[in-house]
Amino acid sequence: MLDLDLLKNFVTVARTGSISVAAIQVGRTQSALSMQMQRLADQVGQALLQRTGAGVRLTASGERLLAHAEQLLARHDEILADMGGPTLKGSVSLGCPEDYSIAFLPELLKGFCAANPDVELRMVCAPTIGLKPLLQRRQIDMALVSLADPGHPDVIRRESFVWVADRKQPRVLDNEVLPLALSAPATLDHRAACDAMEAVNRRYRVAFASDSLAGLVAIARSGHAISVLTKTAVPPDLFIVAEDLPPLPTIGIALEFAESRPSAAAAMLGEHIRQVLPLVGETNGAGRL
User: Fold this and answer.
1) Among 29, 59, 73, 269, which is least packed by CB within 10 angstroms?
2) Which run of H or E residues covers position 227?
3) Any bridge partners for residue 96, and if so which?
């Protein structure tokens, strides 16, 4: 008989590509989890994992078992949900850009978690360009992603990009070559900022780069650069620059799933997000320059 706990931990290892990272997520030591993976391999009589310099990857047999394990665990969750009445059970991994996690997740999750205390949630924060590969490799179940087209039929909320500056040092705007603090070049906010500047022939330079929202906010607070954030993610001590800079576009937020038939828990969380996300308040304490 296959052990469901072993299969569940195997799926976590497969999704993370790392025994050490998976061990933290499942609450076991690295050596204990390695022993579990070896025991599972012994049960099926096939090598499942191959060690690499960056972690582990699935063998061909491991890929086949992963597909079966995901189906079996999803069916297991459905059975528990059906036999347990209204109590939803299972686990869900949700990906989300960092600014959305700060602006939306408290409102999105507190109602869902209160109504479904037996659902195990795992959060992964990354830009949309980082979340897409995780969805494709089924390393997360679902993700909130940014779309350049706010009119796309999958959009469930629209967000505006805004320029932000430190309220105490607005003179950064007087620089002949405007210093900008932006995220990775392939992200929507980076492209939007550069396109907007070039459209009006405004000279600029990318003076600071950070992959985290906290880094961009810290740089803006220093007064040495202007940054670009989604409007709802602007902290109250920063100002939205409403004049002297070109307008920035509006983007859409959509919810994407790794599977065409998500688990009962993932489907329920997705429906909750679709209902609540458009209603999350857009007000914050930001002023305007």
Assistant:
1) 29
2) strand 226-230
3) 125
Q: What is the per-residue pLDDT across 72-97, written as a single tens digit (0 to 9) for each? A: 887 887 777 677 655 677 788 899 99
**CA-to-CA distance for 279 and 289, rounded, in angstroms?**
27
C-beta of residue 226 within 8 angstroms of C-beta of residue 163: yes
Over the stretch 161-189, which tens digit does the pLDDT of each residue have?
999 998 776 678 788 899 999 998 889 99
CB 108 within 8 A of CB 255: no
Place of tokens 């959009």: 155
Give the pLDDT confidence of 23-69 residue by residue, as tens digits.
887 888 999 999 999 999 999 999 999 998 888 999 999 999 998 99
d(CA 36, CA 30): 10
CB 143 within 8 A of CB 95: yes
Q: What is the pTM of this model?
A: 0.73
- Structural domains of the chain, ranges and CATH numbers in brackets: 1-85 (1.10.10.10), 91-289 (3.40.190.290)
Q: Please, which residues have CB within 8 angstroms of residue 178's CB and are 6 or more apart in sequence?
A: 172, 197, 202, 203, 204, 205, 226
Phi, psi angle pair for 252, to nearest 5°: -110, 155
